[in-house]
Hints:
The protein is α+β, with helices and mostly antiparallel strands. The protein has one domain. It is built from three helices and five strands. It has a five-stranded antiparallel sheet. It is globular. 19% of the residues are buried. The mean pLDDT is 88.
Amino acid sequence: MNDALVDDYDSHSRGLRAYVASVAARLGIGMESCCVDTTRPSQVYMALDHRLDQFPGRDLALLWDEGTGWHAALDPGDGQESIIVAKLYGPERPEPATVLRFVGSLNEKAG
């Protein structure tokens, strides 16, 4: 791999990790609740500390992928698949405050 590709990957990786850390901090969770895959196309999984009122037995997570941005999903239970419950429309990497408002509105959207 040439130096330009390595530098681009390192820059992308550092930038994405910094962005995810900023979003996580706004949500009041640590990076231990996040899984960041910086290989292209990049993906993020972020476990949240709360649940939706309509699905009290299912954990809630934020999913991000390069190209489509943020989605809220119910984590799969035994033998179940993830259920996407909402999408944050707009830029691929919105401001962390925008992601915080999105998460705060999830019970309203699901109701």
